[in-house]
Amino acid sequence: MAERSTAAVDVADNSGDEPPAAQAAKATADGVETQDTRQAADKPMPEPDGDRKAAATTAAPELHSGHKLARRYRLEECVTRLDGFSSWRAMDEKLRRAVGVHLLPADHPRARSVLAAARSSALLGDPRFVQVLDAVEENDLVYVVHEWLPDATELTAVLATGPMEPHEAYQLVTQVSQAMAAAHREGLAHLRLTPGAILRTSTGQYRIRGLAVNAALRGITSDSPQRTDTEGIGALLYAALTQRWPYETDAYGLSGLPKGVGLIAPDQVRAGVHRGLGELAMRALANDGATASRQEPAFTTPEELAKAVAAMPRIRPPEPTFTAPPEYQHTTYQQGSYGTPRPGAATTAMPVSPPPPLQSRTGRALKWGVAALLIAALGLGSWQLADTLIDHGGQGGSNTTQNQPPTTDNDDEAPPKKESVPLAVKNAQEYYPDGNPQNIDGVDHSYDGNPSTYWRTKAFNDGPDLTSYKGGVGLIFDLGSEQEVKSASIGLKFTGDHTEITLYAADSASSSTPLGKMKKIVTGTTSDGTMSLTAKDPVKTRYVVLWLTAAPYAPAYEYSQAGYKQAITDVKFSG
């Protein structure tokens, strides 16, 4: 089941040869073409009928399990067969890993657009998207090979268990909106952001599959791609908060909204919905002007939505709940009763008397030996004490005077060294004066006390010095109030030549404040997994900027490509 959940194309979109109005209604249920298809229910579909008919007459390649493509990709299971194309789970026999494959005939009317979309998506190289690995035309076939994530779960399956907690929904909209904003900056759109297109990995990260490719396979286009993707993100957030699909028809295992009432706010569908997230969902969805309660303007791009999410107060994860272990029960053996108690007998354990002292000849000899050793030890100690007193007396003066600590009237003597006091971090955010954040959703992991979680930078091609082209990357830590900052301990994920970090005292948590207007606290360089920084003099500040200007080279790790990079695992300050 886990592998099926990672299929590249979900199978709920089988429109066949239905009339345009029925296709539009089904597309609305599937959340595919959003407002364009809702309008199309009352008029002919914008997609030409000739393209649909040509796709229907072009049969999907008659392939079977075990067939090999390029003598490398062995087809194993057909996941989807629709509109003249098919999608498979396959095995890359060269690299011994599972992959996904889309297949369609070379003369399919959408073959050229699918190839173009796959190659454009592959150039993005953003680890937040399921990566396109190959796009080939050979032997009258066009096929697209992409990653297969066996440990990931579709958002469809996640929502089947119930609505998300506010923190989890916040993570979803943050990661998806930021990823789609990055894609649109490169000229790429998804146009089919449905629960089947979102995967949650075992580490809690969200991956988006089918960027540009899924829409090309189905011939989906949009005159306003940014608005279409923004509405798609809004629908995902709405479903995460309410476990309802924000349209009148049921889709993806979710019930739709009541017919005839239109789009209603999430907190009217389900009690206890986070108000801020509910308003973001309403502003992202096309709802004829019924936006948030404050009547703020609707979002038109994923970038606007991502910035609004980042400006929200951070939603903390729920506190973990611990179950007390069952009370320890003594066994009858531990209670001193070696037999099974008789029915009706009292179960209170009787006190066990200590064993009698040793009465044998060996026991008496052992007692006399121990006594002799104690007497000898006492005598030796008395002799050493007397010798010490005699030596001190020979030096003149009384013993009482010699044993007293010396006194002095010297006022210049250094006071005792003040012990360091841990300073708690109340909040944190990225510091990116160039407008390009690194990993906003991972900031909390930089100070959560868990060395297995981390905030990471992107991977850069040149290094270790980042200042020549990037200037640096950083974090701003909020101590809650002004504190005297003396030292810091910083856990690092990657070791090597070399990591350089500087701490600054800032007046605010804004990324618009340049480093030149901040006071430098301390700078350090290391090649190890921990950096300890101690300032010559404490600096009083509320906000501490951690500015990383050099990072070692590290191989690919989880969602980060190989390159010069660093990850901050655990930051602690002392005053």
TrEMBL record:
Residues 329-338 have a biased composition (Polar residues). The keyword Kinase applies. Keywords: Kinase, Serine/threonine-protein kinase, Transferase. Gene3D superfamilies: Galactose-binding domain-like, Phosphorylase Kinase, domain 1, Transferase(Phosphotransferase) domain 1. Residues 1-67, 318-360, 394-418 are annotated as: Disordered. One of its GO terms (molecular function) is protein serine/threonine kinase activity. It comes from the Bacteria. Signal peptide: none annotated. CDD domains: PK_MviN-like. Residues 35-54 have a biased composition (Basic and acidic residues). Residues 398-408 have a biased composition (Low complexity). The keyword Cell membrane does not apply. This is Serine/threonine protein kinase.
